[in-house]
Amino acid sequence: MFNALYFRTFISLVETGSFTQTARLLDMTQPGVSQHVRKLEDYFSLPLLVRMGKRFELTEAGRQVYDYALRLFSEHEQFRHSLEQDLLEGGECRIASIEVLGVLLYPFALGFMKNHPRLRLHLRFADNQEAIQEVLNRKVDLALVSEMQRHSDLKYVEYLQEPLIVVVPAEYQGNNLQELLGLGFINHQQGQQQAGELLKANFPEEYRGSRQLIQRSYVNRVHLALDAVARGLGFSVVPRSVWEASTWQQQIREWRLPIETCWPIYQVSLKEKKLPERYLQLLDDYLSWRQGTDIR
Questions:
Q1: Exposed, middle or buried: residue 171 (CB in 10 Å: 0-12, 13-18, 19+)?
Q2: Which of 77, 109, 173, 243 is the most exposed place for a label (fewest CB within 10 A)?
Q3: DSSP string, 55-100
Q4: Cβ contacts of 202 within 8 Å, gap of 6 or more
Q5: Per-residue DSSP letters for 131-177?
Q6: Is the pTM of this model over 0.70?
Q7: Considering only CA atoms, which of 91, 286, 126 is closest in space to residue 137?
Q8: Which string of b and e fits 192-223 if b means at least 16 CB within 10 Å?
């Protein structure tokens, strides 16, 4: 008798290489795992495993059944996803986002899901290149990035302009660029570039480039750069959304500058594919919330 659960068990067994781990992963007993394998062997009338004590190897039939099972579940997910494409109240939002936007988008999206109980969210933090590749590989429907990489299959739409800000320890009292630079710089993945754009716009005569930034610390997670600032180790330049999502707002503050500099965020999707309404609703509501306007 055909049973998709048997195939799920078999996939897990092959990928873990262990009856014990498979049983734990699927909340089953080891005899239950063995029974599912035997059911598959009976269904195909072929041995799928060669057992060697606690170890096993796949037979040729076992390798073919494993490949078939992977295709079976992949096609099932694609079919289910296609049925949900135009649903607003239900379905899945599959998004890859750079961290500077995602740290605030994710908690907002959780609130959005409270009002849409049938909605599911898959949000992955990635750098620009990784996020775009996720779209091209059809692992996500939408990427939110800060750089455009031209590709004939991709469509870019500017989504928002994210203001950059200087963040300093709460007790910092300096009032000029030299005193700020004297703190030392807390760098992150795009820190030097963002600092360069903001400081050059506000100090065109004094700021001469990244060689003036004395790096005290580097971390590739931008929100963690604020931890170092909170400990008084230096200053950093981050998008405002990172500051707004921070848990260190009592220990750090914005060092205000007269000229605003913004970091563009783009929506990226496949040209051939129309985004379902639920994506557009989520993005529109988030943008309205960030801009301080009413959300529908």
A1: exposed
A2: 173
A3: EEEE-HHHHHHHHHHHHHHHHHHHHHHHHTTT-SSEEEEEEEE-HH
A4: 257, 258, 259, 261
A5: HHHHHHTTS-SEEEESS----TTEEEEEEEEEEEEEEEETT----SH
A6: no
A7: 126
A8: bebbbbbbeebbeeebeeeebbeebbebeebb
